[in-house]
Each structure stands twice: as C-alpha cells, then as structure tokens.
Amino acid sequence: MSEEPQIVERSEQPYVAIHSTVAMSRLAEVMPPLFPEVFAWLGEHRIAPAGAPFCKYDVIDMSADLVIEVGVPVAEPVVGDARVKPGVLPAGRYVTVTHVGHPQGLEQATAELLTWARERGIEWDAFGAADGEHWTSRLEFSMTDPAQEPDMHQWRTELAFLLKDVSSPTG
Description:
Structural class: alpha+beta
C-alpha cells in the first residue's frame, strides 16, 4: 500500500449509477465505458457531479460474477431512469487508503487492505452468500481525471470500505 489505511467518518452521499453484472475477467473492458455514459446522463439532465466518480462493488464472486455500480456523487437525490439509477452511499465509518498507480494494481492494493484489516480484527459491513460476498459499501473512487493525467501509472484511486456498525444491536 502506498500509505497507511485510515478510519474516517463519512456522511451519506446521494449518487447516480449504472448497474452491471460482469465476470471478473471482463471487468476492465466493461467498466471504463460506463463512466462517460454516467457523465453524459448528468450533462443531459444539467446535474453537476458532487465528487469523484466511483465503482461500487455490491456482490463479489471472483470466480463467477461481480455486481457493480459505476456512479458519480450528486449534491441532492435525483430521479433516475431505466438505465441510470439513483442511490445513496451510507453514512458511517470507512477504512480508506489511496492507491497510486495503474488500475491493474488495484486487485493487489485491495488484497493488502483486506489483510491489514483482518490482522487488526476489523469487520466489514458485508456478508457471505451462495452468490458471493455482499457489501453494503465497497468503493473505488477515481481521484484522477484521465484527461488531465494520461499516464495511468500516476492515477490515484481511493479505496473506501464501510465498517460494520458495532454500536447497533444487530451490528
């Protein structure tokens, strides 16, 4: 990891996103074209982005399919359509770390973050099921604008994973 992970408190954040189910082997070809599509939708609806674009991993089965959302934060909740859906990233405590480098390094950066958390007894807001791991909020924020920095080895990606709420009775 390029830095030590931190635990931060985040407020809830409305967003719009395109949902997709994709095999891990096809993620690199399916995900990137969805970002311009979401930004085009925002432009058509005259809605300004309120933060960095992200990929949200809802269900992860590395040997089968991933259920993802490619989204952009917005200032206020909006109405989506058949393709672009509204959502809200939940408030709570997140573990965050920034990966600097080519997106191909994100799988390794994620593995290191998961190991770091496991070694400290940190629990995620996630659960296992027959179709994979279901995450409440597992995010990769694209902090670099490719138009401003074309060198993918200089790109910054913030990983932000929601922690289990240990204060709630079911938690």
